[in-house]
Amino acid sequence: MFETLSGRLGGIFDKLRKRGALSEDDVNAALREIRIALLEADVALPVVKDFVEGVRVRAVGQEVLRSVTPGQMVVKIVHDHLIETLGGLEPVALDIGQSPPTAILMVGLQGSGKTTTAAKIALRLRKRENRKVLLASLDVYRPAAQQQLQVLAGQVEVPMLPPILGERPVAIAKRAMAKGRVEGFDVVILDTAGRLHIDQELMAEVAEVRAVTSPRETLLVADAMTGQDAVNIAREFNQKVGVTGLVLTRVDGDARGGAALSMRAVTGCPIKLMGVGEKTDDLEAFQAERVAGRILGMGDVVGLVEKAAEHVEREDAEKMAAKLRKGEFSLEDLRDQLRQLRKMGSMEGLLGMIPGIGKIKNQIAQANLDDKLIPRQEAIINAMTKAERRNPKVLNASRRRRIAAGSGTTVQDVNRLLKQYQQMSDMMKRMGKMGGKGLFGRGGMMPPPGMPPFR
Predict the structure, then answer these.
(1) How far apart are CA 33 and CA 41, in angstroms?
(2) Do 305 and 405 fall within a single domain?
(3) Does residue 401 share a domain with residue 308?
Protein backbone atom coordinates (compact mmCIF):
# COMPACT_ATOMS: atom_id res chain seq x y z
CA MET A 1 0.00 0.00 0.00
CA PHE A 2 2.71 2.51 0.94
CA GLU A 3 5.23 1.45 -1.70
CA THR A 4 5.39 4.80 -3.54
CA LEU A 5 5.58 6.88 -0.35
CA SER A 6 8.05 4.48 1.26
CA GLY A 7 10.35 4.63 -1.79
CA ARG A 8 10.36 8.43 -1.89
CA LEU A 9 10.94 8.87 1.85
CA GLY A 10 13.65 6.19 1.81
CA GLY A 11 15.61 8.17 -0.78
CA ILE A 12 15.25 11.41 1.21
CA PHE A 13 16.45 9.78 4.44
CA ASP A 14 19.40 8.07 2.73
CA LYS A 15 20.66 11.53 1.69
CA LEU A 16 20.30 12.83 5.27
CA ARG A 17 22.11 9.84 6.79
CA LYS A 18 25.10 10.33 4.48
CA ARG A 19 25.74 13.84 5.80
CA GLY A 20 28.01 14.14 8.78
CA ALA A 21 26.33 17.33 9.99
CA LEU A 22 23.07 19.05 9.15
CA SER A 23 22.31 22.73 8.84
CA GLU A 24 18.86 24.21 9.18
CA ASP A 25 18.81 24.61 5.38
CA ASP A 26 19.48 20.87 4.97
CA VAL A 27 16.53 20.04 7.21
CA ASN A 28 14.25 22.50 5.38
CA ALA A 29 15.28 21.04 2.01
CA ALA A 30 14.46 17.54 3.26
CA LEU A 31 11.10 18.74 4.59
CA ARG A 32 10.26 20.24 1.19
CA GLU A 33 10.90 16.83 -0.39
CA ILE A 34 8.83 15.10 2.29
CA ARG A 35 5.99 17.55 1.58
CA ILE A 36 6.09 16.68 -2.14
CA ALA A 37 6.25 12.93 -1.37
CA LEU A 38 3.18 13.15 0.87
CA LEU A 39 1.21 15.15 -1.72
CA GLU A 40 2.11 12.63 -4.44
CA ALA A 41 0.87 9.87 -2.11
CA ASP A 42 -2.58 11.56 -2.08
CA VAL A 43 -2.34 12.92 1.45
CA ALA A 44 -4.68 15.92 1.81
CA LEU A 45 -2.96 19.33 1.68
CA PRO A 46 -4.06 20.52 5.17
CA VAL A 47 -2.78 17.25 6.66
CA VAL A 48 0.54 17.64 4.83
CA LYS A 49 0.96 21.21 6.12
CA ASP A 50 0.28 20.18 9.73
CA PHE A 51 2.57 17.14 9.47
CA VAL A 52 5.53 19.00 7.94
CA GLU A 53 5.19 21.90 10.41
CA GLY A 54 5.05 19.49 13.35
CA VAL A 55 8.24 17.78 12.17
CA ARG A 56 9.96 21.12 11.47
CA VAL A 57 9.42 22.40 15.01
CA ARG A 58 11.30 19.42 16.43
CA ALA A 59 13.80 18.81 13.60
CA VAL A 60 15.44 22.26 13.54
CA GLY A 61 16.15 22.27 17.27
CA GLN A 62 19.69 22.27 18.69
CA GLU A 63 19.21 18.66 19.86
CA VAL A 64 19.16 17.50 16.22
CA LEU A 65 21.60 19.92 14.61
CA ARG A 66 24.28 19.17 17.22
CA SER A 67 23.54 15.45 17.42
CA VAL A 68 26.27 12.90 16.65
CA THR A 69 23.88 11.31 14.09
CA PRO A 70 21.62 14.19 12.97
CA GLY A 71 20.26 12.35 9.91
CA GLN A 72 19.14 9.45 12.07
CA MET A 73 17.55 11.87 14.55
CA VAL A 74 15.45 13.47 11.78
CA VAL A 75 14.28 10.00 10.66
CA LYS A 76 13.28 9.22 14.25
CA ILE A 77 11.36 12.51 14.55
CA VAL A 78 9.47 11.81 11.30
CA HIS A 79 8.77 8.25 12.49
CA ASP A 80 7.43 9.44 15.87
CA HIS A 81 5.31 12.17 14.27
CA LEU A 82 3.93 9.68 11.76
CA ILE A 83 2.83 7.43 14.64
CA GLU A 84 1.07 10.39 16.28
CA THR A 85 -0.67 11.31 13.02
CA LEU A 86 -1.84 7.71 12.52
CA GLY A 87 -3.25 7.45 16.02
CA GLY A 88 -0.53 6.90 18.62
CA LEU A 89 1.23 3.86 20.03
CA GLU A 90 -1.81 2.10 21.51
CA PRO A 91 -4.14 0.36 19.01
CA VAL A 92 -7.86 1.03 19.52
CA ALA A 93 -9.94 -2.17 19.69
CA LEU A 94 -13.57 -2.59 18.69
CA ASP A 95 -15.95 -1.51 21.47
CA ILE A 96 -18.20 -4.52 22.02
CA GLY A 97 -19.72 -3.28 25.27
CA GLN A 98 -21.03 -5.22 28.26
CA SER A 99 -24.78 -5.47 27.55
CA PRO A 100 -25.52 -7.65 24.49
CA PRO A 101 -26.58 -7.54 21.79
CA THR A 102 -24.10 -4.87 20.66
CA ALA A 103 -24.83 -3.34 17.25
CA ILE A 104 -21.98 -2.62 14.83
CA LEU A 105 -23.07 -0.42 11.92
CA MET A 106 -21.06 -0.73 8.70
CA VAL A 107 -21.19 2.39 6.49
CA GLY A 108 -19.38 3.52 3.34
CA LEU A 109 -19.69 3.96 -0.41
CA GLN A 110 -20.59 1.13 -2.77
CA GLY A 111 -17.54 -0.89 -3.77
CA SER A 112 -15.53 -0.01 -0.67
CA GLY A 113 -15.59 -3.62 0.56
CA LYS A 114 -18.25 -3.11 3.24
CA THR A 115 -20.00 -6.47 2.88
CA THR A 116 -16.78 -8.49 2.79
CA THR A 117 -15.45 -6.55 5.78
CA ALA A 118 -18.65 -7.26 7.75
CA ALA A 119 -18.04 -10.99 7.26
CA LYS A 120 -14.34 -10.64 8.16
CA ILE A 121 -15.20 -8.83 11.41
CA ALA A 122 -17.79 -11.52 12.22
CA LEU A 123 -15.15 -14.23 11.75
CA ARG A 124 -12.61 -12.31 13.84
CA LEU A 125 -15.08 -11.87 16.71
CA ARG A 126 -16.17 -15.52 16.55
CA LYS A 127 -12.68 -17.01 16.43
CA ARG A 128 -10.62 -14.61 18.52
CA GLU A 129 -13.14 -13.45 21.11
CA ASN A 130 -15.55 -16.39 21.10
CA ARG A 131 -18.52 -14.08 20.47
CA LYS A 132 -21.90 -15.19 19.12
CA VAL A 133 -22.40 -12.99 16.05
CA LEU A 134 -25.40 -12.32 13.80
CA LEU A 135 -25.00 -10.75 10.35
CA ALA A 136 -27.80 -8.71 8.75
CA SER A 137 -27.90 -7.11 5.29
CA LEU A 138 -29.75 -3.80 5.05
CA ASP A 139 -28.84 -3.36 1.38
CA VAL A 140 -32.12 -3.77 -0.50
CA TYR A 141 -30.94 -1.77 -3.54
CA ARG A 142 -27.87 -3.48 -4.98
CA PRO A 143 -28.77 -6.66 -6.89
CA ALA A 144 -27.79 -9.84 -5.00
CA ALA A 145 -26.29 -7.83 -2.09
CA GLN A 146 -28.15 -9.90 0.49
CA GLN A 147 -27.22 -13.13 -1.29
CA GLN A 148 -23.57 -12.04 -1.26
CA LEU A 149 -23.62 -11.62 2.51
CA GLN A 150 -25.44 -14.96 2.83
CA VAL A 151 -22.62 -16.73 0.95
CA LEU A 152 -19.94 -14.99 3.06
CA ALA A 153 -21.84 -15.82 6.27
CA GLY A 154 -21.69 -19.49 5.30
CA GLN A 155 -17.96 -19.25 4.64
CA VAL A 156 -17.21 -17.73 8.06
CA GLU A 157 -19.77 -20.01 9.79
CA VAL A 158 -21.81 -17.14 11.24
CA PRO A 159 -25.64 -17.04 11.05
CA MET A 160 -27.36 -14.37 8.98
CA LEU A 161 -30.78 -12.82 9.42
CA PRO A 162 -33.02 -14.41 6.73
CA PRO A 163 -34.08 -11.77 4.16
CA ILE A 164 -37.80 -10.98 3.70
CA LEU A 165 -38.84 -9.76 0.27
CA GLY A 166 -39.88 -6.09 0.27
CA GLU A 167 -38.71 -5.33 3.83
CA ARG A 168 -37.13 -1.87 4.25
CA PRO A 169 -33.71 -1.24 5.89
CA VAL A 170 -35.01 0.24 9.18
CA ALA A 171 -37.41 -2.68 9.63
CA ILE A 172 -34.58 -5.15 8.89
CA ALA A 173 -32.40 -3.45 11.52
CA LYS A 174 -35.17 -3.65 14.14
CA ARG A 175 -35.81 -7.33 13.36
CA ALA A 176 -32.08 -8.09 13.59
CA MET A 177 -31.77 -6.47 17.01
CA ALA A 178 -34.92 -8.26 18.24
CA LYS A 179 -33.50 -11.60 17.08
CA GLY A 180 -30.21 -10.72 18.77
CA ARG A 181 -31.97 -10.13 22.09
CA VAL A 182 -34.22 -13.20 21.94
CA GLU A 183 -31.54 -15.66 20.80
CA GLY A 184 -28.69 -14.40 22.95
CA PHE A 185 -26.34 -12.96 20.34
CA ASP A 186 -23.38 -10.92 21.61
CA VAL A 187 -22.96 -8.82 18.46
CA VAL A 188 -25.24 -7.87 15.56
CA ILE A 189 -23.38 -6.57 12.49
CA LEU A 190 -25.57 -4.39 10.26
CA ASP A 191 -24.33 -4.06 6.67
CA THR A 192 -25.94 -0.89 5.28
CA ALA A 193 -26.40 0.00 1.61
CA GLY A 194 -23.79 2.04 -0.19
CA ARG A 195 -24.06 4.41 -3.14
CA LEU A 196 -21.66 5.26 -5.93
CA HIS A 197 -21.40 8.71 -4.36
CA ILE A 198 -22.56 10.46 -1.19
CA ASP A 199 -26.19 11.63 -1.35
CA GLN A 200 -28.70 12.93 1.18
CA GLU A 201 -30.97 9.89 0.81
CA LEU A 202 -28.13 7.55 1.82
CA MET A 203 -27.20 9.70 4.80
CA ALA A 204 -30.80 10.01 6.00
CA GLU A 205 -31.30 6.25 5.82
CA VAL A 206 -28.10 5.48 7.73
CA ALA A 207 -28.99 8.10 10.36
CA GLU A 208 -32.43 6.50 10.80
CA VAL A 209 -30.92 3.02 11.20
CA ARG A 210 -28.47 4.42 13.72
CA ALA A 211 -31.31 6.02 15.69
CA VAL A 212 -33.26 2.75 16.06
CA THR A 213 -30.26 0.50 16.82
CA SER A 214 -27.97 2.76 18.95
CA PRO A 215 -24.77 1.06 17.73
CA ARG A 216 -21.64 1.00 19.93
CA GLU A 217 -19.57 1.18 16.75
CA THR A 218 -20.27 2.96 13.47
CA LEU A 219 -17.43 1.85 11.23
CA LEU A 220 -16.65 3.75 8.03
CA VAL A 221 -15.23 1.27 5.51
CA ALA A 222 -13.02 2.99 2.94
CA ASP A 223 -10.93 1.70 0.06
CA ALA A 224 -7.25 2.56 0.65
CA MET A 225 -7.00 3.27 -3.09
CA THR A 226 -9.62 6.06 -2.93
CA GLY A 227 -7.01 8.82 -2.77
CA GLN A 228 -8.05 12.44 -2.25
CA ASP A 229 -11.78 11.55 -2.28
CA ALA A 230 -11.20 9.72 1.02
CA VAL A 231 -11.10 13.03 2.88
CA ASN A 232 -14.50 14.21 1.58
CA ILE A 233 -16.07 10.79 2.21
CA ALA A 234 -14.75 10.63 5.77
CA ARG A 235 -15.75 14.21 6.60
CA GLU A 236 -19.28 13.80 5.20
CA PHE A 237 -20.02 10.53 6.99
CA ASN A 238 -18.57 11.82 10.23
CA GLN A 239 -20.65 15.01 10.15
CA LYS A 240 -23.94 13.43 9.04
CA VAL A 241 -23.83 10.02 10.76
CA GLY A 242 -21.11 10.11 13.40
CA VAL A 243 -18.26 7.67 12.87
CA THR A 244 -16.53 5.88 15.77
CA GLY A 245 -13.82 4.13 13.79
CA LEU A 246 -12.32 3.56 10.34
CA VAL A 247 -11.61 0.33 8.47
CA LEU A 248 -9.25 0.50 5.49
CA THR A 249 -9.69 -2.13 2.77
CA ARG A 250 -7.34 -3.23 -0.03
CA VAL A 251 -4.30 -2.23 1.99
CA ASP A 252 -2.41 -4.96 0.12
CA GLY A 253 -3.16 -3.28 -3.22
CA ASP A 254 -1.18 -0.78 -5.25
CA ALA A 255 -2.39 2.23 -3.26
CA ARG A 256 -0.40 5.36 -2.50
CA GLY A 257 -1.28 5.26 1.19
CA GLY A 258 -2.47 8.84 1.62
CA ALA A 259 -5.99 7.80 2.62
CA ALA A 260 -4.80 6.39 5.94
CA LEU A 261 -3.09 9.62 6.96
CA SER A 262 -5.83 11.91 5.63
CA MET A 263 -8.91 10.16 7.02
CA ARG A 264 -7.43 9.71 10.49
CA ALA A 265 -6.45 13.40 10.66
CA VAL A 266 -9.70 14.79 9.20
CA THR A 267 -12.16 12.77 11.30
CA GLY A 268 -10.12 12.39 14.48
CA CYS A 269 -11.48 8.81 14.54
CA PRO A 270 -9.08 5.92 15.08
CA ILE A 271 -8.31 3.46 12.28
CA LYS A 272 -9.32 0.21 13.98
CA LEU A 273 -8.86 -2.46 11.33
CA MET A 274 -7.36 -2.96 7.88
CA GLY A 275 -8.09 -5.55 5.21
CA VAL A 276 -4.86 -7.03 3.89
CA GLY A 277 -6.13 -9.59 1.37
CA GLU A 278 -9.12 -11.30 -0.19
CA LYS A 279 -9.44 -14.23 2.24
CA THR A 280 -12.00 -14.01 5.05
CA ASP A 281 -9.26 -14.02 7.70
CA ASP A 282 -7.20 -11.29 5.99
CA LEU A 283 -8.12 -8.63 8.54
CA GLU A 284 -5.64 -7.07 10.96
CA ALA A 285 -5.83 -4.67 13.88
CA PHE A 286 -4.41 -1.31 12.83
CA GLN A 287 -1.24 -0.52 14.76
CA ALA A 288 0.22 2.89 14.00
CA GLU A 289 3.77 2.01 15.03
CA ARG A 290 3.93 -0.94 12.66
CA VAL A 291 2.35 0.94 9.75
CA ALA A 292 4.75 3.86 10.29
CA GLY A 293 7.61 1.35 10.18
CA ARG A 294 6.38 0.03 6.84
CA ILE A 295 5.99 3.55 5.40
CA LEU A 296 9.57 4.43 6.35
CA GLY A 297 10.97 1.12 5.02
CA MET A 298 11.70 -0.23 8.50
CA GLY A 299 9.44 -3.24 7.94
CA ASP A 300 7.25 -4.95 10.51
CA VAL A 301 9.17 -7.91 11.86
CA VAL A 302 6.81 -8.32 14.84
CA GLY A 303 3.83 -8.55 12.48
CA LEU A 304 5.68 -11.02 10.29
CA VAL A 305 6.51 -13.25 13.25
CA GLU A 306 2.91 -13.07 14.52
CA LYS A 307 1.57 -13.99 11.08
CA ALA A 308 3.95 -16.95 10.91
CA ALA A 309 2.99 -18.09 14.41
CA GLU A 310 -0.67 -17.93 13.45
CA HIS A 311 -0.31 -20.02 10.29
CA VAL A 312 2.68 -22.29 10.93
CA GLU A 313 2.13 -25.29 13.18
CA ARG A 314 4.65 -25.52 16.01
CA GLU A 315 5.16 -29.23 15.36
CA ASP A 316 6.04 -28.53 11.71
CA ALA A 317 8.49 -25.82 12.80
CA GLU A 318 10.16 -28.22 15.25
CA LYS A 319 10.54 -30.86 12.54
CA MET A 320 12.12 -28.30 10.23
CA ALA A 321 14.44 -27.17 13.03
CA ALA A 322 15.62 -30.77 13.51
CA LYS A 323 16.32 -31.08 9.77
CA LEU A 324 18.21 -27.80 9.78
CA ARG A 325 20.44 -28.98 12.58
CA LYS A 326 21.30 -32.01 10.48
CA GLY A 327 21.81 -29.86 7.39
CA GLU A 328 18.97 -31.62 5.53
CA PHE A 329 16.59 -29.89 3.12
CA SER A 330 14.68 -31.74 0.38
CA LEU A 331 12.27 -30.57 -2.30
CA GLU A 332 9.45 -31.95 -0.13
CA ASP A 333 10.59 -29.58 2.62
CA LEU A 334 10.59 -26.73 0.12
CA ARG A 335 7.02 -27.64 -0.89
CA ASP A 336 5.96 -27.53 2.78
CA GLN A 337 7.54 -24.11 3.16
CA LEU A 338 5.74 -22.84 0.05
CA ARG A 339 2.39 -24.08 1.41
CA GLN A 340 3.03 -22.25 4.68
CA LEU A 341 3.83 -19.06 2.78
CA ARG A 342 0.56 -19.34 0.85
CA LYS A 343 -1.40 -19.49 4.10
CA MET A 344 0.22 -16.28 5.33
CA GLY A 345 -1.22 -14.01 2.65
CA SER A 346 -0.13 -12.15 -0.47
CA MET A 347 3.53 -12.02 -1.47
CA GLU A 348 3.43 -8.21 -1.64
CA GLY A 349 2.05 -7.99 1.90
CA LEU A 350 4.73 -10.31 3.29
CA LEU A 351 7.57 -8.54 1.50
CA GLY A 352 6.35 -5.19 2.83
CA MET A 353 6.97 -6.43 6.38
CA ILE A 354 10.66 -7.15 5.77
CA PRO A 355 13.03 -4.34 6.85
CA GLY A 356 15.02 -2.73 4.06
CA ILE A 357 13.08 -4.52 1.33
CA GLY A 358 12.84 -1.32 -0.70
CA LYS A 359 16.59 -1.36 -1.29
CA ILE A 360 16.41 -4.60 -3.30
CA LYS A 361 13.35 -3.66 -5.38
CA ASN A 362 15.19 -4.30 -8.65
CA GLN A 363 16.17 -7.83 -7.62
CA ILE A 364 12.59 -8.56 -6.57
CA ALA A 365 11.23 -7.20 -9.85
CA GLN A 366 13.65 -9.41 -11.82
CA ALA A 367 12.57 -12.44 -9.78
CA ASN A 368 8.89 -11.97 -10.83
CA LEU A 369 7.62 -12.60 -7.32
CA ASP A 370 3.86 -12.53 -7.80
CA ASP A 371 1.18 -14.58 -6.06
CA LYS A 372 1.12 -17.06 -8.97
CA LEU A 373 4.77 -17.96 -8.40
CA ILE A 374 4.17 -20.23 -5.40
CA PRO A 375 1.41 -22.34 -7.04
CA ARG A 376 3.68 -22.78 -10.09
CA GLN A 377 6.59 -23.87 -7.90
CA GLU A 378 4.31 -26.29 -6.03
CA ALA A 379 3.01 -27.74 -9.29
CA ILE A 380 6.55 -28.46 -10.49
CA ILE A 381 7.44 -30.28 -7.25
CA ASN A 382 4.15 -32.22 -7.29
CA ALA A 383 4.92 -33.45 -10.84
CA MET A 384 8.05 -35.21 -9.53
CA THR A 385 8.16 -38.71 -8.10
CA LYS A 386 8.89 -39.15 -4.41
CA ALA A 387 12.39 -40.40 -5.26
CA GLU A 388 13.06 -37.32 -7.42
CA ARG A 389 11.88 -34.96 -4.67
CA ARG A 390 14.20 -36.56 -2.16
CA ASN A 391 17.18 -36.80 -4.51
CA PRO A 392 17.09 -34.05 -7.18
CA LYS A 393 20.47 -35.18 -8.54
CA VAL A 394 18.66 -37.88 -10.59
CA LEU A 395 16.78 -35.22 -12.58
CA ASN A 396 18.32 -35.52 -16.05
CA ALA A 397 17.08 -33.71 -19.20
CA SER A 398 14.33 -36.20 -20.08
CA ARG A 399 12.95 -36.22 -16.54
CA ARG A 400 12.89 -32.41 -16.50
CA ARG A 401 10.92 -32.37 -19.78
CA ARG A 402 8.41 -34.82 -18.27
CA ILE A 403 8.04 -32.69 -15.11
CA ALA A 404 7.53 -29.51 -17.17
CA ALA A 405 4.81 -31.18 -19.24
CA GLY A 406 3.15 -32.63 -16.13
CA SER A 407 3.11 -29.28 -14.28
CA GLY A 408 2.07 -27.09 -17.21
CA THR A 409 5.34 -25.14 -17.05
CA THR A 410 8.52 -24.98 -19.15
CA VAL A 411 11.84 -26.75 -18.77
CA GLN A 412 13.33 -23.33 -17.99
CA ASP A 413 10.90 -22.99 -15.07
CA VAL A 414 11.97 -26.41 -13.77
CA ASN A 415 15.66 -25.53 -14.14
CA ARG A 416 15.11 -22.22 -12.39
CA LEU A 417 13.36 -23.89 -9.45
CA LEU A 418 16.13 -26.50 -9.09
CA LYS A 419 18.82 -23.81 -9.17
CA GLN A 420 16.98 -21.78 -6.55
CA TYR A 421 16.38 -24.91 -4.47
CA GLN A 422 20.13 -25.60 -4.52
CA GLN A 423 20.87 -22.06 -3.33
CA MET A 424 18.32 -22.43 -0.52
CA SER A 425 19.67 -25.87 0.39
CA ASP A 426 23.18 -24.44 0.72
CA MET A 427 21.81 -21.63 2.87
CA MET A 428 19.96 -24.14 5.05
CA LYS A 429 23.17 -26.06 5.63
CA ARG A 430 24.94 -22.89 6.70
CA MET A 431 22.06 -22.04 9.02
CA GLY A 432 22.18 -25.57 10.42
CA LYS A 433 25.77 -24.99 11.46
CA MET A 434 24.64 -21.79 13.23
CA GLY A 435 22.10 -23.68 15.31
CA GLY A 436 19.16 -24.05 12.93
CA LYS A 437 17.63 -20.63 13.50
CA GLY A 438 15.61 -19.31 10.59
CA LEU A 439 13.79 -16.06 10.02
CA PHE A 440 11.09 -16.92 12.54
CA GLY A 441 13.28 -18.42 15.24
CA ARG A 442 13.51 -22.16 15.69
CA GLY A 443 13.00 -23.83 12.36
CA GLY A 444 11.60 -20.68 10.79
CA MET A 445 10.64 -20.17 7.19
CA MET A 446 12.87 -19.33 4.27
CA PRO A 447 12.31 -16.66 1.63
CA PRO A 448 10.45 -17.94 -1.44
CA PRO A 449 12.51 -19.28 -4.35
CA GLY A 450 13.98 -16.44 -6.38
CA MET A 451 13.86 -14.04 -3.44
CA PRO A 452 17.24 -12.66 -2.24
CA PRO A 453 18.17 -14.03 1.22
CA PHE A 454 16.77 -12.09 4.20
CA ARG A 455 19.66 -10.32 5.94
Answers:
(1) 12
(2) yes
(3) yes
